[in-house]
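In the previous chapter we treated chains in isolation. Here, by contrast, the input contains two separate entities that must be folded as one system, with a combined length of 622 residues.
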Amino acid sequence: MEREIIELFMKHLRKQGDLPLGDDAGALRLGDEWLVATNDMLVKNTDVPNIMTPEQVGFKAVTMNVSDVAAMGARPIGFLFSLGVPMGIDWGYIEGVARGIGEALEFYGVPVLSADTNEVDDLIIDGIALGTTKRLLRRSGAKPGDLVCVTGDIGRALSGLMIYLNDLDIDRKTREILYEKLLEPKARVKEGIELSKYANSAIDISDGLSKGLHLLAEMSGVRIEIDGENLPIWKEVHEVASIINANPIEIALASGEEFELLFTIPPQNLEELSSDFTVIGTVHKGAGVFITASGKRLKMPLLGWEHFRRP
Amino acid sequence: MEREIIELFMKHLRKQGDLPLGDDAGALRLGDEWLVATNDMLVKNTDVPNIMTPEQVGFKAVTMNVSDVAAMGARPIGFLFSLGVPMGIDWGYIEGVARGIGEALEFYGVPVLSADTNEVDDLIIDGIALGTTKRLLRRSGAKPGDLVCVTGDIGRALSGLMIYLNDLDIDRKTREILYEKLLEPKARVKEGIELSKYANSAIDISDGLSKGLHLLAEMSGVRIEIDGENLPIWKEVHEVASIINANPIEIALASGEEFELLFTIPPQNLEELSSDFTVIGTVHKGAGVFITASGKRLKMPLLGWEHFRRP
C-alpha cells in the first residue's frame, strides 16, 4: 500500500526540492552547503516487537531518522518529533520513550528543535532529522569501477527476530549478541560524515541488503556483482541459520533495520577510510545485481524479512 | 494531556537547539542565518470538522506548519510530511488530501523534500516546515513602548464553527465569508518575512488571540493593554454574535486556527509595513493582559474555542 500512496501523492506534488524524491532524505542547497531533511514514522503496533523496551523504542525513533541523514553523507544537526498518544496510555511507558529519545540525542550529539503531541489511537512517534553536508551522497552516484562496501556486520537483526518469533532455544550469550542489533541498532553517523568525502553513493540498510543493492544498481544505472563469501556475517547468524535450516547469506541479504551503510567508492579512496567496513563486491557497466557463492553466480533475489517469517 | 506529556519529555531532553523550546518553531544558527523548523500533527478524527473537504484538510496541514515558520519571521523553504493511513480508507479521499497538499505548496511556493506513509488507525498528517531568516522573531521579544498589532481580521473561524455546530440559520453569503476562514485559512508568509525586519516579537494565532496575548506578555515579561473597540472584527461575526447572544469581542478573543500573526513593533517602524494589519494595543512595563471595552478595563480572560461549544 505504501508505494501506491506515495505514487498517488507524487502525481500531485510537482514542486520538489533541489534533489528529486527517491533518496534516503530530501535536500536543498543552502549557501555552499546542502541541507538534508528526512522523516520516518514509527508505529508501535506494527513496527515494534513486543520484547522492545520503551527506552529502545524511543532510541530507535531517533536512530532511523539520523541514519537517513548519515546515508546522505550529512552531519545531523537537529531532531524534531510528533508524538501520537492513545487515551489512557501507561505513563511509565511514555516516560521510557522520552528517556530513550533523550539518550539517543545525547548519543548522537543532536539537539531537539521542536516537539508536538496529539491524541490518536496508536502510539506513534514521527521523527524528523536535519543535517548538513558540503557533498551529498546519493543512491544514483555508483560508478563502474567502484568497490561495493558495507559498514559493520549484517544478519543479526533478522536472526534475533527469528529467535523471538520462533521461540528458538539458544544460549544466552548468542541471544544477547543478536538482540543487541535487533533492539538497539545504531546509526553510522561518523561513517556517513567520513564517506561524504570519499564515496560515490550510499544508502542505509533499512529494508535489507538485497533491496539496498537493487536500489543502488537501478538508480545508478549500473550492474553490481557481490561476493557472497565476503559478506560480514557473524558466527551467531550461522548458528541460527543452522537451527532453522536456512542459508546464512540469505538471512544477511534479507535482514532489515540494521542501519548499516551500504556504499560504493573508487578503489584508490579506500585507504582514506578509518571506519569499520568490508568490501563485498564491485560495480560494472550494465544492469542488475548478481551474487557469487559456493562457485555459483546467480541473479540476486529480492529478499525481505517476510521471506523468513513463519506463521 | 498535551502539556503534561511535553513537560515529561522536556525533563529527558536536555539537549536543545540554539533557541530553547517554547516558540512557534525551533531554530538553529546556520552560518549567518537561522534555520527554523517546526512540526504539527493533524489528526482527522479530532482536528477536522466534518464539513471540511479532503482538499481543505491537505491544504490546512501545510498552512499550520508554514504559519509557525512565518511567525518566526522566516521564509519557508521546504515541507515534509508523514501520512498515517487507516486500512480500507477511501482512495478518493486520500487523493483529495494529496491534491490539497500540492495546491498549498504551489500557493506558498514551497517544495516538498520528503514523504513517508504508514498504516495506522486514524488518518494523520504530520507536517514539517523549514525556513530561514536573518533575524528571528520570538515570543519573548516584546518591549515596553511597542504597539500590539494583528494581521487581517479575527473571529470568523469560530463564528463559522458555531454556525456549523449549532446549525444556525444564516444567509448563504454570510456563511460563505465565515466558512472561508474556518475551512481555508491562509498562513501570513509575506507578512512574516516583512515583519522579521521591523517587529520585536510575533506569534501566530493558532490557539486564539487571548492565549497568544498571554503568551507574549508572559514570555516577554511585560504588560499588554488591548483596546477592545479596535479589534478587526467583521460584521459577519457581529451577526453570529447577536444570534447566539454572545459578545463579538469574546468570539474574536477565543477564535483559534485563524493563522493571523500577532506582533509587537516600535511605533516608528509602523510606516515601513506594507502588510494589512490593525493596531490593537500597547506594551508596558509590568505583567498581565488587560482589555478596555465599553469604557471598562478588565483583566483579559483566557478564552478558547471550548468556551463557546454547546452540547
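Residues 54-71 of chain B form the longest helix (18 residues). Chain B has a mean pLDDT of 92. Compare these points with the single-chain example from earlier in the chapter.
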